[in-house]
Amino acid sequence: MHNGTTITQFIIEEQRSIAGATGDFTSLLNDVVTACKVLSNMVNHGALVGVLGSAGTENVQGETQKKLDVLSNEVFIKSNEWAGHLAAMASEEMDEIYPIPAQYPRGKYLLTFDPLDGSSNIDVNVSVGTIFSILRCPGGNEEPTERDFLQAGTQQVAAGYALYGPSTMMVLTTGNGVNGFTLDQNIGEFILTHPDMQIPADTREFAINASNMRFWEPPVRRYVQECLDGKEGPRGEDFNMRWIASMVAEVHRILTRGGVFMYPMDAKIQAKGQGGKLRLLYEANPMSFIVEQAGGGSITGRERILEVQPESLHQRVPVILGSRNEVERILGYHKDA
Ligand code: AHM
Ligand code: MG
Fold first, then answer.
1. The pTM of the whole model exceeds 0.80
2. 205-336 adopts what CATH topology?
3. Is residue 335 marked as binding?
4. 291, 324 Cβ separation under 8 angstroms
């Protein structure tokens, strides 16, 4: 039996110290947490409840949607639209922003999310997750527009992810460090199990989809080649490699034991006219906020991701994040090139 701090208690206590806090934010986070519990349950039951497989549709990025992509998006909307804390939502799975319908009150926050990241892993029963970010709505809550969402990552009020792995976890930052909670299935509560998570500054482990190697830019090739050269190479040490193809699982591993995750710019992505593989508002910004709050670094290769000024809702960026000293090294290689 667990007698620890629940996520709700943790958030309430954290918010108490903030002058002028109305409780809106606490209550919004609670709704996000509830949505993640529902998704955890769906992902857990998988084929038993008929949620695996393709939905036969494509999202705005032209990717085939899994049934669970569509269902999880609906769960997120339903859990978060009614309470009066949000002006609008935006999701990787929806073309346009979702202003809160007129039947509900509108609030001062914006929510962006990728309801089920790494969804190519669902059918093979490998970890997936939910990523979310909370912003303030700068234009007021009357008629929220796409422009309201185009805020640099430094403006985020909170960011987090839920990881549906051997256990379900929620990792959260409100700009005051990073804390991890584990879902106790028996009582249906997330319990604080990983207080003040810190990414080790050094690592000997990297994660990249090496099938794209021939398309990479020279700085990334150089970095990876030096890792592969191991003890005999310029680094003088052997490196280990991991690739789960599930960003949430990858970031979680890095928060736990260090490492570098890269989905860099490459010639194939460029040929498609895209700025990267991962989306700035739903993936790169929330993860960068978490990683930086845990003492790590997060860059596009050339600049800090959190300082990128978004130009469109579904904008993509290259992502290189993780242990600080390695990320700085990779930044240096881009500057040298
Ligand atoms: P998704 O949002 O469509 O699931 O795509 C994002 C995922 C990341 O979780 C993961 O890092 C990457 O795509 C894997 O890409 P690849 O299939 O090229 O290895
Ligand atoms: Mg995604």
1. yes
2. D-Maltodextrin-Binding Protein; domain 2 (3.40.190)
3. no
4. no
